[in-house]
Amino acid sequence: MKLIGSPASPFVRKIRVLLIEKGHGDVDVEMHDPWSNPPELTALNPFSRVPALVLSNGVVFYDSKLIADYIESTMQGPRFVPEAGAGRWFVLQAQAHADNMLDVGIRALLERRRPADKQIKDKIMRDELAVARGISSCAKIVKGLEPKLNLGHISLAVALGWVDFRLPHIKWREKQPSLAAWYQDMRLRPSMQSTIPVDSAKS
Fold it and tell me: What are the residue ranges of helices labelled H in the chain?
């Protein structure tokens, strides 16, 4: 099994953290820049997006939600998504919330990287305000999750880490002190420390 990723992708980081917490941190990870359409990646995922998970039989899965589901369904170790009940849907909703926050944040980041005279300022403002609202909602979502570490916690922590990494001007800690304290504990976990993003990709 091999995970194809990029050093800066929060969706890749989510999967790497999940693998480590599940006891499979030894899975081979191969890094590429998806923006350059490397043939090694496009041969596996025609959309040149990461993460992609290559199984030992050659089957390839892409999209972080699908990969997380596969890991939870087939790999040994503690469970990070309840099998049934309300707890399952709370965890999956937390993952969806984090992924949406990242999608909007990445959209704002890419707009900021356009030449200054071509940027659509209203678009940037709208998307960054959406990210700020998403962060505000994170505190409530965290309180609704079971205390035991789960995929919802991982997803939210990775999303907050990405905001710090790529949109540091969104200063959210003063407005969300309880969330900041929770995130501080999460970011110090070995799985988070060993997957800190590297500034070598656009995501």
Answer: 10-22, 39-42, 64-74, 86-112, 121-144, 151-166, 177-187, 190-193
